[in-house]
Fold these 2 entries.
Entry 1:
Amino acid sequence: MSAASEISRRADFSEIRYAQCWEDADVLLKALDIRPGHVCVSVASAGDNTLAMLAGGGERVIAVDLSPAQLACLELRVAAYRALPHGDLLALIGSRPHPSREDLYRRCRSLLSPEARRFWDAHPHEIAAGIGGAGKFERYFARFRAYVLPLIHSRARVARLLEGRSAEARAAFYDEQWDTWRWRLLFRVFFSRTVMGWLGRDPSFFRYVQGSVPARILARARYAMTALDPSDNPYIQWILLGRHATALPYALRQENFERIRARLDRLEWHCRSLEDFLNGTGDRAIDRYNLSDIFEYMSEENYRRLLEQVACAGRPGARLAYWNMLVERRRPPEMAARLRSLDELAGALHREDKAFFYQRVVVEEVV
């Protein structure tokens, strides 16, 4: 079974799985170091990190995804950048309140392809609530926010967690006020493999996972709430509040808005697997890859096969960045002559990664 067919046969790609990108775009852009003239390939997901890559100044950004629903997310974002001012873009996403997101959608609708228009016309409730909450993964966090978090902490305590303070004060707050037995117990239940597979990710995504899922995520949550600053973390803020309060992901920040809007003509997207796309690119064609966490969903054999394709299609010095959440995937030793592991850079970036549930950032370079 090929890497492309493996996940497509085991998971349903007709719905929005991720209405936001849950990899830290600041980390991604530091890992890739996109320069003028670069040709970049990005796993589309919801589109945020693909759009962030436009700000890097590359010549082309090519988004690929197996899911028409995920590409509809990207396409509506592109239309919103074209049709809306920055504040209304935030409102359409759900980062900010708005009395009528349907009106915002209507201003974007004529810029959509017929396929994307049909998709979003059939999802009025998701538009009204903010398209950043429309995915299965985001609904999973919404259930945690609505039904689990109130059993653990009050709104006032959540607000105090998100206040800016020193690292020492953050650690004291977490240990003395946040890290209760209810927090540990209900976190372990809700973020278990079973519950996460049922409500959040597709159960097939856990096929190659070994060891305790909630213990790993809980340890990373503590790191993100103490070593890092929750007041500067849009991912924690969305999980706990259902919106962005004092922080935004890279593509939604005002200082990046016009730069992304001005470069939208450099973006293209394709509904196909990365494997199929690379089959048609030829050798030495790509400079930068955003590979999200797609290798987690593949067998070791298929991971290695796709990594060979990525290396063949990459120019000398091409960089690839990807994440390990629950399955370890790193360049195998036998590919050392093809790919160089940038472990020092990757380790430094992982220490500042605000998307806290990942166990490793991987950065590699084509030799």
Entry 2:
Amino acid sequence: MPNKPVHVATSGPAGLICAYMNAPIDATGMNRLLEVAGGACGGALGGLLPDVFDPPYHPRHRALAHGMLPVLAGASVWGQGLGGWQTSLRQQADTFAVKRRSTEDPFLAALYSFAEMTLRLLCGAVAGLGAGYLTHIALDFTTPCCLPLIN
């Protein structure tokens, strides 16, 4: 039966792959690296979330957060919104990159750089979060208890 280490070990790479596949082809090395790193972190977090919402030690462990219909509905929203969310985050990061290059104040340049990198990490994390969550659900689906339809 999958436990926390198994979920992290599978959902982190799933998030990384999802972020890599959703990164723009023309992304520079650092931008792609930040998105992929964010995807791995988001995937690991997403792989833990179902058990955060429905703790394994609780009598109703596989309740709403593990239910097939709510998960499929959430996956649909994530899949349809992902492109728009990532585009928005990339545009905001690009705005900070322009501000960083145009300022002469080193402190402001450092703040703009931090904001840009954080947004690029978040861009990958939103891709990885959903992939990690779905990986957790897929692993739990293969157990003898399976998953509830709604619960």
